[in-house]
């Protein structure tokens, strides 16, 4: 029994997998923003009741969390102290001299305060050069004075980020010893541990961000482990990393910066799983929840890994799945601008409490979900009848918006959906059209509580088919957590021209990184048969500012060869990515070793019951608003549909964890794996 838990802004989604019977159980419970662990423990009770098992039967808990992300976005992290090399106290303030846009952009820019304030920054007398040579010895007496002054001022965590510590971490390590001798309870992070790579600002801000969220993450993980124990769960808790891998709760507590995109990672991993099982090599992941929508690209069954991301205004140089997020979700609030009298949707959200007006929890402002209720796209009861919707309340709230702009309730609701769809469409264009990809070459996997509600309309605008609605779309991110593997990355910066570099040095460094990777796999208790280690080089043309990562086969590393083939791959990859190759010397920038530990795949059993006769699956017929008029629309129970069943639009396809809107001139067919495949009717004729 493995449990995936995805805490969203509105609902906490849970999916329990019984590996013995290939059965999955799903549950959704309202999130509890005041303490997310409360919603998780309630969800565990609920799903165990549904499955008829005891919490103690659960063997593994895999959890995606937005705690780190929210702390940075909301500016509610810890007070962080920063030790830097003397003379570099303004590193975080200088940043990269980046401004948003041309002249007007920086004139109106509200530059955020760094995550570590200047008053909490101290310059340490010491210096190491880029080759790791000590050019100025560490002045320990002065360092102790500065440490006692800073740590005694009330900081909650301490970052140590010295110049060129990636080449020689000795001074950072000694400073940590001095700190912990005097302040043993202080959270201390070294840049040489968190990001042992060159580029001074990236290394400093990433490590500071780690400490900014570290006390909060430590407290949260302690609470959730305590609550899981209280409900009877005695298995290990693992946290999903931003790159879709897994890490222990202890590792997440010490390196929470690796969880800044933990939440969206599950959906991307699950979309890659759908791509491999359906044979659709090009897919767009479309994850629409209550607060935001996350989109990403899957090519050849694999997601794109980025070496850096942004959390609000701040960069974080950690491996992440390439995800684009926008503030449009089911709970996004619709409002009329006082200045322009125009209708706007999001990014403000009603969240879990009070939520949309239709949820009846005290919400008064109309949301995207309320617009779906008004148009007849959402039934009056959700979650298998466990949750009733206030249809009249939603209509009244949307009508208020319509009155302000001279529209009736239906037209206002349609306008809300159209604007929300355009916002999400913009994110999809960024990851496709702006990168030279034609969205018409892709299908779309719709998931999240609201994804299947909007996916057909989005696909019609973009021309990307089929729309794939998996068997458990509302909890697909939680399912993706179960598909995740243990993962960690080990890096060594080694800058120099390939032509003048001793290959032996490269392979010696790879051997050292491999040793660290094996130690980490031992710590995570990954069985030998489940282990994997991959090798890569970061290469660039001489004097370029950015690198390209090139994989090197493991057998080549073991043979102490493969450099020449990597150079040829670099030229080809550079031309494929940027459309050009140069006859220039190639520089090596860094070596990377990625350790992975496989987990059992989620083997969902295809639907064993149901009928291909759609008439037997109709629950009721209710009015639905399509193409500017009300139409009698069948509401179909998805669980009664067998493989091969074909539903003609318009239709509302209902299930426990979500609702799928099938537009006119489209049809949905159940494939052999239980996925709904939505196509334009013209294609199926």
From TrEMBL:
Pfam families xrefs: Hydant_A_C, Hydant_A_N, Hydantoinase_A
Any single GO BP term: glutathione metabolic process
Domain Hydantoinase A/oxoprolinase: 203-489
Domain (Acetophenone carboxylase-like C-terminal): residue spans on this chain: 505-670
Annotated GO CC locations: cytosol
Domain Hydantoinase/oxoprolinase N-terminal intervals: 2-181
Signal peptide positions on this chain: none
GO molecular function: 5-oxoprolinase (ATP-hydrolyzing) activity
PANTHER family: 5-OXOPROLINASE RELATED, HYPOTHETICAL 5-OXOPROLINASE (EUROFUNG)-RELATED
Name by which UniProt lists this protein: Hydantoinase/oxoprolinase family protein
Provenance organism: Oricola thermophila
Taxonomy of the source species: Bacteria, Pseudomonadati, Pseudomonadota, Alphaproteobacteria, Hyphomicrobiales
